[in-house]
TrEMBL record, chain A:
Keyword Chaperone: no
Gene3D superfamilies named in the record: 1.10.3730.20
Organism: Paenisporosarcina quisquiliarum
Name of the protein: Multidrug efflux SMR transporter
Principal location class: membrane
Transmembrane residue ranges: 5-22, 28-46, 58-77, 83-102
UniProt GO MF annotations: transmembrane transporter activity
Automatic annotation (TrEMBL), chain B:
Family: Belongs to the drug/metabolite transporter (DMT) superfamily. Small multidrug resistance (SMR) (TC 2.A.7.1) family.
Membrane-related topology note: Multi-pass membrane protein
Subcellular location: Cell membrane
Transmembrane region(s): 29-50, 57-78, 84-103
Protein name: Multidrug efflux SMR transporter
Range of residues in the leader sequence: none
A cellular component term, taken from the record's GO annotations: plasma membrane
Gene3D superfamilies according to UniProt: 1.10.3730.20
UniProt keyword terms in alphabetical order: Cell membrane, Membrane, Transmembrane, Transmembrane helix, Transport
InterPro entries, per database record: EmrE-like, Small_drug/metabolite_transptr, Small_multidrug_res
Record organism: Paenisporosarcina quisquiliarum
Pfam entry (one): Multi_Drug_Res
GO molecular function, one term: transmembrane transporter activity
Length: 111, 104
């Protein structure tokens, strides 16, 4: 896991925070935190897009953010836990890991 | 009308991703405005669409349009690699995200 992918991963973690914030924030501090999380996640994503293809970064960001949000809903907000959801999260992770692997190959070829 | 909002929301998301590309190319006011206005308009239109469409469905369509559009913009205009493996993996991610949004 190199530094650029780490940025995408952390951006996705902050995305989970702000999605939860948009849904549950009910006072000024929660909204300020939500806005900071939006700013941090977009900043990291833009930085990662300097060296990785932006389309790839965005797809991974959306994918990991979605998986994280679904998992957070199950763990902290009492959403139901079922097999199709787990299967889709696994499928999503296959897509993310695969995309990371082919992108690495590309960088090695081009450098 | 809700569907028009939703499709426009997806289109503005693509504008926002295009803004990300622009910011990386050249840090100008126009680049930042494209990024911020793109995503802000996209979220507002998505919220409008969700007033009458089911949330999961609206999210799924919005994500699909934005991610596919963003990928195409990168490949067509910013020289992102276009190999079939990358397209296949992005397709898998989009299918899984759309599935998750529809089921939750």
């Amino acid at each position: 896991m190199n530094k650029e992918w780490m940025k995408v991963l952390i951006a996705a973690v902050f995305e989970v925070f702000w999605v939860i914030g948009l849904k549950h924030a009910d006072d000024v501090w929660a909204w300020i935190g939500t806005l900071i999380a939006i700013a941090v996640s977009f900043y990291l994503m833009i930085m990662a897009g300097k060296t990785l293809p932006v389309g790839t970064v965005y797809a991974v960001f959306v994918g990991l953010g979605t998986a994280g949000t679904v998992i957070a809903d199950i763990l902290f907000f009492g959403e139901s836990f079922n097999l199709p959801k787990i299967g889709l999260i696994a499928l999503l992770l296959i897509g993310v890991v695969g995309l990371k692997l082919v992108t690495k190959e590309q960088e090695e070829v081009s450098s | 009308m809700a569907w028009i909002y939703l499709i426009l929301a997806g289109a503005f998301e693509v504008v926002g991703v295009n803004g990300m590309n622009l910011v990386n190319k050249k840090k100008s006011i126009v680049s930042f405005l494209t990024l911020i206005i793109g995503f802000a308009a996209s979220f507002i239109l998505l919220a409008l669409a969700m007033k009458s469409l089911p949330m999961g469905l609206a999210y799924a369509v919005w994500t699909g349009i934005g991610t596919i559009g963003g990928t195409l913009v990168g490949m067509l205009f910013y020289g992102d690699p276009k190999d079939w493996k990358r397209i296949a993996f992005i397709g898998i991610i989009i299918a899984a995200v759309v599935g998750l949004k529809l089921t939750t």
